[in-house]
């Protein structure tokens, strides 16, 4: 069925090829990643809570937790690389030719998506791992900080969505690889 | 250069093909993953420390920290799936044919390695994220638990090595994919 539609569409030159379709899907996934990472960045930067105890006021911010600092660095680096990928994708779609000729462009996309997806996942998992147990210990110490950990978890969730869209893009760029075996 | 060696080896039938070489490399990587995950499992199970304070003795074990419970579940599931992959790899190498015919085997290897590598990385990152900040808070509370967190970090490092070998295997199985673009 897939093959039949392919052969009929190739007779009309205006119909998009399967390669153009997959490039468009990858571009949409990258724009979604961009949106998720942007909101994740805004949320993590706003993650702070002021608590009052017998000693006076004390404020906790995202950079008091090392795991959240790692999380923010994965968001920022992922964001910068994502912008580069979007620029290259748009260039390829518009001009029809790749910036990197031959196998280079495919390899760049493949390794770029692969490494970025690992990177974003590690940031999200580190954030969730720290939140879960720290929140329990703070609760046990009668200092729940629900808003603080809620915001941090919201940011880690958005980072996880960014990972999922990058991982799906990575499947497409793996299938587009030139065959070596 | 690569192409030259390939054409000369194909003339002698006894020389291994590049596909057999990459299958052997993948098998070696999977055996390494097996070793790393086995030691990671032993180390995390042994992660406990007894501390004495004014209230008497108290013991902390790996299952007191939720992130370490998630870590152990990724190790166990990764370990089980790894054994299945090793069995299938050995079968393919010995018999020369695959259990799953057609594209099925390649897709199984590709998605198996991809999902497993994400899974192992998330366990390792969650473990490191929790260790880093919990250790700081315990140190600040004059209860360093250095041995406990040291063992947990050793296990998370081994899990990270298991992730790295799986990620390299994943590159090989991506290049072996049937071309779809």
Automatic annotation (TrEMBL), chains A, B:
Signal peptide: none annotated. Its main location: membrane. GO terms for cellular component: plasma membrane. Keywords: Cell membrane, Membrane, Transmembrane, Transmembrane helix. InterPro entries: CASP/CASPL (IPR006459), CASP_dom (IPR006702). The chain crosses the membrane at residues 27-46, 67-95, 115-135, 156-177. Pfam families: CASP_dom. Residues 22-164 form the Casparian strip membrane protein domain. It is a multi-pass membrane protein. It is found in: Cell membrane. Homodimer and heterodimers. Belongs to the Casparian strip membrane proteins (CASP) family. This is CASP-like protein. It comes from Vicia faba.
